[in-house]
Amino acid sequence: MEFWQQAHEVVSRFVIIRVIVLVLSTVVRVVLILNGAGLTLIAWSLVVESAALATTSLIYNRRSCVPVNFRSKAGHSALMLIKISWVLLLSGLLAQLSMRMGVIYLGSFSQDRELANFAAASRLTEFAFVLPVVVTTASFPRLLRTRAEHGRESQQYRSELQRSLTSAFWVGSLFSICGVAVGPHLIPLLFGNEYSAAVPVFQVTVITLPFVFMGAVLSKWIIAENLLRLSLWRNLLGLILNIILLVLLAPQFGAMGAASAYLSSYIATNYISFFWSKDSRLMAYSMTTAILWPVFFPVSFIRNRNGKRSREWSND
Fold it and tell me: What CA–CA distance (Å, rounded) separates 100 from 206?
């Protein structure tokens, strides 16, 4: 449903609906944790949250001006895509499990305060996860048009892809820097002074945003290039690394250890994993270029400027 909203460019209201549902569900979950709710009840709150997101999306779709009709030709095409995209469905489940693994693991042995600190920090960070939808909605259709017109090996397509990755990473970095700066004021404002220990946890988890933003572009590139199994393996790698680091760090460092595992799993999923396959290695190099853009941009600018001067002198 989210991809359908993006395709019809009606994503802004959809994002607002998702943010409202996520805010309400997080408040409910924090209240449950503070009142000593068990792990089963917290898990059910996650199920209710997913159901609420799906229900509100369907209600919004029915009231939109371009309804989805699965009996139409496009609807039958959508059903066929669902049948062949089980890899993406499984990949999405692995990604969701990795996101929740810190809460599940801390809930199995740690004190309620450590669990509450990590739950508040990670969910507040995840509110920003809807923002890449806006960024990629603006860039992805143009990227697909360039691929269709010039080919997947063309310089135009490569340049457009590089531009999308660079924009995504540095927009995410901007939000990450803002999150680190306002965290000491935002956490007490939203959750109270008793959650002051969640501030450094939030500052660690919010560093994931550049890689989350870049991952939104990568997910669509994977679909465009029909590398669906790559999506599965990268999310499986992130989940495994998350579990290993949780076992090593969380018992000693509590919520901070879970936050470090959370950050590391996102970096592995949305960056490091792309170096392993020859099909995705070029994207890994493009991501490295995006990350090092402040270094490459001045060099490229000076080189182009010198080249322009050389051509002018040769013409003279």
Answer: 16
251: number of Cβ within 10 Å: 13
What pLDDT, on a 0 to 100 scale, did the predictor assign at position 205? 92
Nearest to 203 by CA among 233, 223, 232, 181: 181
Residues whose CB falls within 8 Å of the CB of residue 24, separated by 6 or more in sequence, listed in order: none
33 close to 116: Cβ distance less than 8 angstroms: yes
From the centroid of its chain, how far is CA 78?
24
- For helices 209-224 and 131-150, the axis angle rounded to 10 degrees is 30
More confident residue, 154 or 296: 154
| Range 53-64 average pLDDT | 69
- Give the separation between CA 178 and CA 172, rounded to whole angstroms: 10
pTM comes to 0.72
As a whole number of angstroms, the distance between CA 234 and CA 175 comes to 24
Q: What is the mean pLDDT of residues 112-140?
A: 77
3-state secondary structure of 244: helix
CA–CA separation, 196 and 187 (whole Å): 7
